[in-house]
Amino acid sequence: MKRAAAFKFRLYIADDTQNSARALANLSALCRAYLPDRYEIEVVDVFQEPRRALADGILMTPTLVKLVPAPVRKIVGTLNQMQLVLQALDLQVEVA
């Protein structure tokens, strides 16, 4: 039986643009380093699912949404400033 992820993220990207690839790489690295085996990442390409992006209120990419645990948080950008991303997501981890 698979254990539920403690953290659930949804990353909205725009096809295979450089910023989208960078955001996914940065999010993956953050999760591997600070949330090992406790996360799930869903990637939504706004070019393939434009109605979903609009319904979810996504106007820019890349946009990261932390869904679980509450509260929901959103960050726009490539997620390259690790300390700021951790703070914005309200993740209580120490960065050296």
Q: What is the terminal-to-terminal distance?
A: 35 Å
- The 3D shape can be described as globular
Task: Report the top-level CATH class.
Answer: Alpha Beta
**Helical segment tally?**
3
CATH topology: Glutaredoxin
Average pLDDT taken over every residue: 91
| CATH-defined architecture | 3-Layer(aba) Sandwich
Q: How many beta-strand segments? A: 4
| Percentage of β-strand residues | 25-35%
Largest sheet: 4 strands, mixed
Task: Give the total of domains.
Answer: 1
The helix/strand series, from N terminus to C terminus, equals EHEHEEH
Helix proportion of residues, in percent? Answer: 25-40%
Low-confidence spans: none
Structural class of the secondary structure composition?
A: alpha+beta
Strand order of the largest sheet: 2-1-3-4
